[in-house]
Amino acid sequence: MNVRPYEPRDRPAVREICCDTADGGRPVERFFADREVFADLITRYYTDLAPETTWVAEEAGQVMGYVTGCFDSRRFARAMAWRIVPATLLKALGRGTLWHLQTRQFVRVNLRDWLRGRQPVDLRDYPGHVHINLRVAARGLGVGERLMEEFLRQAKATGVPGIHANVSEANAGGRKFFEKCGFVPLGRTGRFRFPDAPEQPIFTMVYGKRL
């Protein structure tokens, strides 16, 4: 499997993989119906504004996985607040996504937690962050490790002191992967609640790695 820098032609595959793996490695449809809007929120910053920090794994012309992130999470937060989120909300309005019953339920059960949530990571030590997603057929083959090596090598060469990542607490495979790559737990925070089980919050483990 070939690991290489992201190219614009990879954008549809990255968005598809993001949606196919959104729920702890499972498809997004359990909690959000509009893939186009979800993919904009989760991937558009990386593919459109900072593609230089994205790598893909390709086999026979098909993208099988990707790693993406940024080296300045404060810059990411500003771009999300002023560019990505407003544009995505406008798209969601035009597509009717905000009026979809599943969307309204998802926002209703999560809004209070989102407003009071905090990230248990010191951005002075871990200013960068990383996401990695693989198709089912690419898991367990060492592809994730190769993608992560490229991203971390690039981050270290840029002078980034540390990288952090969020992993669903219930995703045992994902947590094991990051620990294998040298990440250590930094804390635990609320992630979201499923509309069909609002009394059971889904927690996120935050991992970090010094470079």
Descriptive keywords:
211 residues, alpha+beta, Aminopeptidase, seven-stranded mixed beta sheet, 6 helices
Count the E strands: 7
Helix/strand class: alpha+beta
Q: How are the strands ordered across the major sheet? A: 1-2-3-4-5-7-6
Strand content: 15-25%
Low-confidence stretches: none
The share of residues in helices is 40-55%
Helix-strand blueprint:
Elements: E1 2-5, H1 11-20, H2 35-49, E2 55-59, E3 62-70, H3 73-95, H4 101-116, E4 128-134, H5 143-158, E5 162-168, H6 172-180, E6 184-192, E7 202-210
Parallel strand pairs: 4-5
Antiparallel strand pairs: 1-2, 2-3, 3-4, 5-7, 6-7
What does this structure look like?
This protein has 211 residues and is α+β, with helices and mostly antiparallel strands. The model has no long low-confidence stretch (mean pLDDT 88). It has one domain (2-210): 3-Layer(aba) Sandwich (Aminopeptidase), CATH 3.40.630.30. 42% of the residues lie in helices and 24% in strands. It contains six helices and seven strands. The two termini are 26 Å apart. It has a seven-stranded mixed beta sheet, sandwiched between helices.
Give a summary of the structure in a few sentences.
With 211 residues, the chain is of the alpha+beta class. The chain has helices spanning 11-20, 35-49, 73-95, 101-116, 143-158, 172-180, and strands at residues 2-5, 55-59, 62-70, 128-134, 162-168, 184-192, 202-210.
